[in-house]
Design a protein that fits this description.
- By secondary structure, the protein is an alpha+beta fold.
- The protein is about 20% helix and about 40% strand.
- The longest helix has 18 residues.
- The radius of gyration is 20 Å and the shape is elongated.
């Protein structure tokens, strides 16, 4: 059996093309399309089938980590489909990317009215909020976040600390559905903040990496 742990020059060239920021944008009507040699295609498909494959892109000081999934289309043609990425900030240490909210956005009570907690920064793992009333900060909260035209997503947070600038840092506890919705929201907002990124030149709702 051939040892697939070592990449051939062709495979290295393909990976370099993925990371080359000077490469041409994808066809807006087709999403992210990459045609590769059969040997490389089989390697990628094998890794994706075993959940061993991630594709990463770097934008400024951020890293987007995509997990491709092997799917079959209506013509029974296998291809890799990129899922919603996780976004990280790079620096002296890595952390989940924080979306700055300008203006800050209030968390909502169950009756839909604004609470006293107003979000300044939001990430998949936590948020930084301002408390608009003079009171001890809540140790925990379960409040809604209004996401565009979709019904509010319910966030559950636990107080971590009071920051040097007087904001409250909360750690989020999310179920799978809430995590997926929030991750998608952060991704869409990231697209709006970086519209000229080569990753976002496609108008397609779901980008896909084809393996033919």
């Amino acid at each position: 059996m051939q040892d697939s742990s070592l990449l051939t020059p062709l495979e290295m060239e393909f990976i370099q093309q993925l990371m080359d920021s000077n490469s041409a944008p994808a066809d807006p009507g087709k999403g992210l399309q990459v045609d590769v040699a059969r040997q490389t295609a089989e390697l990628l498909a094998s890794c994706a089938a075993k959940d061993q494959l991630t594709i990463e892109a770097h934008i400024a000081n951020q890293r987007l980590s995509f997990t491709p999934h092997l799917v079959t289309d209506a013509q029974n043609t296998p291809h890799l489909e990129l899922g919603i990425p996780q976004i990280f900030e790079e620096g002296s240490f890595h952390r989940a990317w924080r979306l700055p909210l300008n203006p800050p956005q209030p968390l909502l009570r169950r009756d839909g009215q604004p609470s006293s907690l107003v979000i300044h920064e939001l990430s998949l793992s936590g948020l930084r909020v301002e408390q608009t009333v003079q009171a001890s900060p809540p140790e925990r909260f379960s409040l809604g976040l209004d996401i565009d035209d979709i019904e509010p997503v319910i966030l559950q947070g636990s107080l971590v600390r009071v920051t040097d600038d007087g904001l409250l840092a909360y750690e989020l506890t999310l179920d799978d559905d809430t995590s997926e919705r929030l991750q998608n929201h952060l991704y869409q907002q990231h697209r709006k903040l970086f519209p000229h990124c080569l990753l976002y030149t496609s108008d397609a709702a779901d980008d896909s990496l084809r393996v033919d």
